[in-house]
Predict the structure.
Amino acid sequence: MTEKKTILLTTINQSKELPLALYYLKAYAYKFEDIKNNYEITIQDFQKKDTSLKDIIQTIISIKPQIIGFSCYIWNIKEILEVCVEIKKHCKKTSVWLGGPDVSEEYLHQEGVDLIIFGEGEETFYELLDYSLKDKDIKKIKGVAYKKENEIYKNPSRELINDIDTIPSPFLTGIADLKTLKKYDYLLFETRRGCTFKCAFCKESVKSNIIRYFSLERLEKEFDFLLKNNLFIEIIDPFLNTSKDRLIKICKIIEKRNKNNIVWVPLIYNILNEETVLALKKANMNRVEIGLQSTNLETLKNINKPINLELFKEKILLFDDYFTVHIDLIIGLPGDDFFKFVETLKFTSSLNKKILIELLSVDNNTPLRNNAKKFKMTFQKEAPYHIIANHSFSENEVKKALIMSKSFMKEYAIDL
Amino acid sequence: MILTYQHIKTNTTKEFYEIKKELDSYNRKSNVCFYEKELSNRTDGTQILEYAKNKALRIKIISDGKIFSNQEVANLYLRSGAHIFEIEFDLNKDLKETIRGFQNIKKSGFFNKFRKTIKAFVAVKILITKQDKKIVSSIVKQILPLEPDRIILKNQQPKTNLISKNFFKEIIDTCIQNNIWILTENVPINLMKGYEPHIIELYEMKND
């Protein structure tokens, strides 16, 4: 019997959260007997705060996988690229693959990177493994860019997976077993993929503007397993309430099982009402997050996120003190300036909820990035591509807005 | 952006029940402030703070900081629910105890409702007159390494326009370079051209 090929799927995380994307890849690939019989896929993730780059490199070198796949995000791509260079130096035969929402074929110009999976990765990853077994032509695999004899090739994009229930649940299949799951502070969890909104700072709709749902039957089984085992869940949908009916159905599934184990629920304000807020309450989903970003109408127009502020306020006030409501704001949006941001802060703090303030990332593949010239945006050349200035917000003001926000937030949030 | 606080008078002529009644009139999460000198003159000062805390009010203490040079007193205030402090630096007085008091509050922590240790918010307000403007810059440089959460420069003589623009510009730039937020109070707007984000009066808002 021939030895199985070794694959290491890995990532560098900011906190102790389950690397869901890697488990989806493994669960999908292992649906196929050929893959299961011929590949040993191991998942090992690293925490930025606990492990130095040197230790990460040493660990990977000691495993010496034949293929290594990194799950890349804006917060880890810089470190991953550094790791790739070192891996290639020490394990010349290891094929280095990158995937995730923040990769593009540009990274093939970097030393140490052999292949990029762009778009949804599950089918592409499986086909790449299958191609390797059956000696197929890599040119036929959609969603791949690769380097061959110093030339870079990019294949056509892959269509989205229409029925996402075809991706086996890593939780129900045991791909992520209970012992593994218990090591994490919380588990990232999707109830659907895609977003029909087109907020210019976000790439969700660019990744997929069609919403595809996991079936309620599957979600019921998953929630049952995870909550029965007292695991903590962070929902990573762009927002959970795509429709009132589905939200209420999900709440009903969770209602009898949840003892405050769902630690993060992203929501959109306009389709909230007393009924849905009550359903969330009954389901013990009390830590919710709602995006506002700015109250300046010009800014909201520039980021393609129309918000009715009166309605926003009305909806936020539906949440009583049982809930911890986080409202997201962004510093550095085009159209804002220092005092317009102060107005946003004034409006938001008047609602007496928690406030999350981020500096704008002019991320690859976002409509804002494509409009960088129009808004005279300057930003960091490397991830996380933080804004430096734009046509309305000077560099000096952006810096001052950040320092002011830090001071204000410490005072504002101290007893909330 | 700043929060404004409603001053709760606690001079000794006021009975505890009157103060309680006043605190009862505020909604949860309203902002109230106390003068430490008034509270320290009473035997029920910390009880008043605890009462306000139990009403879920956001409490600020305004003080010259000297009393907090005793670490136990600083801890007592924090335990009683005061988590936001404004320490006034009067440059005409000896600042040793004030600075020690400031440091004591900065290094103390308190448990929030999730049993997580939180550090208090401590702002420094420097009271400036024409006479002591020369030493303001050196005092600010002395305070910066102690990492105040905010510095406020308060002009004590708003009617005497004797402080030049460059005076504030230099101090503000130094604070921003050190990532410390700084505001000015009672400073004529014409002296602050190009430095509008630092004018406290432009932020004032009612919270209730």
